[in-house]
Write a structure and sequence with these properties.
Blueprint (H helix, E strand, L loop, with lengths): L9 H10 L2 H6 L24 E11 L11 E9 L5 E6 L4 H15 L4 E4 L10 H11 L1 H13 L3 E4 L9 H17 L7 H15 L20 H4 L23 H23 L16 E4 L11 E9 L5 E7 L4 E5 L3 E3 L18
Parallel strand pairs: 1-4, 4-5
Antiparallel strand pairs: 1-2, 2-3, 6-7, 6-10, 7-8, 8-9
């Protein structure tokens, strides 16, 4: 074309045509990019440790069989994370069953008290995962199991919250905790197989090490060795700290008073408010909210499928957050109605095809 003509702003004209081409867009769809949301109030409000807890599973791991010819038993690890202090509690679970989950939860509540709110992944997050996670999907997707867990939580006045389906980024707190636990286990045991008792002991030690990690960057002062850790909110000191000296032979009038110990805990919460909260929220600049309207036609991103096979969907409802930014939408496809995060939908450049697409909705997910 340029051998005969010199088009003015030719590249800009070609790009504008490509951006409005439906076939070109479906070959390389671009999802919606919304600004980072605000942290929930439970993450930035002082509360009792594990009052608001996130739960996730990791595994499977294989323990040492009872004899040589026996198969290695599979076990899983239930990870409990405190929203306010990032403290962790690890429980070894023998199988992926409702009874195993409730037993692990009872052990956790016996150590740290009954939480007021529990946040977990949605069952739909495990639908396209491996076979082991499909077992976990069966637990949270089965109506009988959900009814048993819901009854257990309701009897103890616990609010059970789910994140949106196919949105693991909404549970980044416990996803990071699972990554830390897996990294520690790989460094400690490698390919070795431990007995059930030794693995339980190792999990306690790993939890103590993770609860001794600093919540804020260390001070530049070489003489300042004190740093805020999750263990300060559990026992008043890092979990890996040396034990205090024996005070049995010390006179009572020289012992630290209970009110001074309470003042020390208040100082920990003050440091948590002044140092930890300022490092917690890192807002992204330069990203403006993308307008999303009901009725827009979008391409729904699916795992393990090429982009040209991703189904078309219509936005039927929006779910804005506390800041007014829409990060979760309800879409209707030819197979049903689903709730998805905006990072899973790619709006088409031309809304005129909305009148040419007929989408039915057998059931709602």
């Amino acid at each position: 074309m340029r051998q005969e003509y010199w088009p003015i702003h030719g590249k800009r004209a070609v790009n504008s045509v490509l951006r409005s081409c439906i076939r070109c867009f479906r070959c390389n769809p671009s999802p919606i990019d919304q600004p980072t949301g605000q942290l929930p109030s439970t993450r930035v409000s002082p509360s009792r440790p594990f009052s608001v807890t996130g739960i996730d599973y990791c595994g499977p791991f294989y323990t040492k069989p009872p004899h040589r010819r026996a198969a290695a038993p599979k076990v899983y690890i239930a990870v409990f994370v405190c929203f306010a202090t990032k403290a962790m509690h690890l429980e070894l679970v023998g199988d992926l069953s409702t009874a195993g989950f409730l037993s692990a939860f009872r052990c956790f509540s016996g150590h740290h008290g009954i939480p007021s709110d529990v946040h977990t992944d949605n069952a739909k997050n495990f639908a396209g995962a491996k076979h082991e996670l499909n077992e976990l999907y069966q637990i949270f997707n089965d109506e009988i199991s959900k009814r048993q867990i819901g009854n257990e939580f309701s009897e103890q006045a616990i609010n059970w919250h789910f994140i949106p389906p196919r949105a693991p980024n909404f549970g980044g707190l416990w996803e990071a905790a699972v990554h830390s636990v897996k990294s520690a286990l790989k460094r400690e045991i490698g390919t070795h197989q431990l007995t059930h008792e030794n693995l339980s002991t190792l999990l306690v030690q790993i939890a103590a090490a993770l609860n001794s990690r600093p919540l804020v960057p260390l001070s530049d002062d070489p003489s300042d060795l004190n740093v805020l850790t999750p263990g300060h909110f559990l026992i008043g000191a890092p979990m890996k700290a040396l034990p205090d000296r024996n005070l049995l032979s010390t006179l009572k009038n020289r012992l630290i008073h209970y009110q001074q110990r309470e003042q020390m805990f208040q100082q920990y919460w003050q440091r948590w408010s002044n140092e930890y909260l300022s490092e917690l929220q890192a807002t992204s600049k330069g990203i403006q909210p993308t307008p999303i309207r009901i009725g827009n036609i979008v391409v729904l991103r699916e795992d393990n499928m090429p982009p040209l096979c991703w189904p078309l969907a219509r936005i039927t409802d929006v779910h804005p957050g506390s800041d007014g930014v829409i990060r979760v939408v309800t879409v209707k496809t030819a197979n049903g109605i689903y709730k998805r995060p905006v990072c899973r939908v790619c709006p088409l450049p031309d809304d005129k095809i909305a009148t040419q697409i007929n989408l039915s909705s057998p059931q709602k997910e």
